[in-house]
Design goal:
The chain has about 375 residues and is mainly alpha-helical. The protein has two domains: about 5-345, no CATH class; about 350-385. The protein contains 14 helices and no strands. It has helices spanning about 5-25, 45-55, 60-75, 80-115, 130-150, 155-165, 165-185, 195-215, 215-225, 225-245, 250-270, 275-305, 310-335, 350-385. Helix 7 (about 165-185) runs antiparallel to helix 11 (about 250-270) and helix 12 (about 275-305) packs across helix 13. The radius of gyration is 25 Å and the shape is globular.
Length: about 375
């Protein structure tokens, strides 16, 4: 497997999570916000939702694509047991912790804001994404390791040939179109805890892995044809707004969604595949921020919505509050308190003193066992002599 570090994929994950924060804040200013458990502004801003209708058909599938790509890179130096252990630490542990300790917080703020009886209700909330990833890894791992052991086989050559043509990627979009035809979701963007969200995410996760597995041909294709994919996406989005009023037939949205994503991959590969200190910091911060952002933006809404200021200024203030508060919580709490790191998906790095203590304790235990075994052998010899 290739060992090339892909900085553009890291950037796309960061950007997608940033867009997710803005998207969730925009929901607060929609009249239907309470129906999906969000605090709602008394004044709505319909103009905010027009750009959101473009984002919401590809922002979540993009994250699943990137997650599938990330699994490919995670498999490079791990066998299946090591990979499952690593995914358990990085995904299942934060998912479980989040259900028990994080998602009840934003529900508590919701109860407080609307003077409802206060209660503790553990639930998946926005962390449903992590639960889906855990399932995809378990389902697809045997196939992925088969592909890993046959890197120069017929499957890879066939995939490489398919990815080398711009129409090959559009053919892959047909799988997504077929999914919505079979599942029949009420709305394409209803991903959370729905069968549509599960199967759409499964396809994106699966093909995300295959795109990287196929080699450089996928990246060469999206690089060369990025304007074609973005142009098709804009045309399909215009048709959706003009003829259908946001919610077009699912198969058209599925193709539009993938065209946006292929275009984003192409532009990302062109401009974002560069290392930087900013990228190093943000790539570490993105996952914890994703986990905590909901209760932070609810807290921001609780304090800012009652203020007598223009509605658009409220939106800007909640965005700023969420960004600054997430940074402060990450930088001064999550990043600096050792036992919290694995609970938010970060690697727990020992400092030099901790390493020395660990090595000393390990050596002392080994010496103790050696002495104990020696004493046991001596005692056995004594008993034999007595007999």
């Amino acid at each position: 497997m290739t060992s090339e570090r892909r900085h553009d994929i890291d950037w796309l994950r960061i950007i997608a999570i940033g867009l997710l924060l803005i998207y969730h804040i925009a929901i607060i200013f929609q009249p239907w916000a309470m129906f999906i458990g969000f605090i709602r502004s008394e004044e709505s801003v319909a103009t905010l939702w027009t750009p959101m209708t473009m984002l919401n058909v590809w922002r979540i599938p993009l994250l699943f694509y990137v997650s599938g790509m990330g699994l490919y890179f995670a498999m490079r130096k791990r066998n299946w047991k090591q990979l499952l252990l690593e995914r358990t630490k990085r995904i299942l542990l934060p998912f479980t912790f989040g259900i028990l300790a994080i998602t009840p917080l934003h529900l508590f703020i919701f109860q407080k804001y609307y003077n409802l009886p206060l209660g503790y209700f553990p639930h998946q909330g926005h962390l449903w994404f992590l639960g889906n990833i855990c399932m995809y890894v378990l389902i697809l791992l045997p196939l992925y390791y088969y592909l890993k052991t046959h890197e120069n086989g017929k499957i890879k050559r066939a995939l490489s040939a398919l990815m080398s043509h711009p129409g090959g990627l559009l053919l892959i979009s047909l799988f997504f179109a077929l999914e919505v035809v079979l599942v029949k979701p009420q709305q394409f963007a209803l991903y959370a805890e729905t069968w549509h969200g599960f199967f759409n995410g499964f396809l994106a996760f699966f093909f995300g892995f295959l795109f990287v597995y196929s080699g450089k041909t996928f990246w060469q294709t999206v690089l060369k044809w990025r304007w074609l994919y973005v142009g098709l996406a804009i045309i399909l989005y215009g048709i959706r707004l003009r003829l259908f009023g946001i919610e077009a037939p699912g198969y058209l949205i599925a193709i539009e969604s993938n065209c946006w994503i292929f275009g984003v991959f192409g532009f990302g590969y062109t401009y974002l595949n560069k290392p930087s200190n900013t990228l190093n910091y943000l790539s570490q911060a993105a996952y914890p921020v994703y986990i905590i952002h909901m209760f932070v933006l609810y807290a921001g809404a609780m304090f800012i919505l009652p203020l007598e200021i223009p509605i658009l200024l409220k939106f800007i203030c909640i965005v700023a509050f969420t960004g600054v508060a997430c940074y402060l919580i990450y930088e001064f709490i999550i990043r600096r308190i050792g036992f919290l790191k694995p609970l938010f998906g970060l690697k727990w790095k020992f400092n030099k003193v901790e390493k020395q203590k660990f090595q000393y304790n390990k050596a002392a235990k080994r010496d103790f066992l050696s002495i104990k075994n020696g004493l046991d052998s001596a005692m056995k010899d004594v008993f034999k002599t007595d007999k």
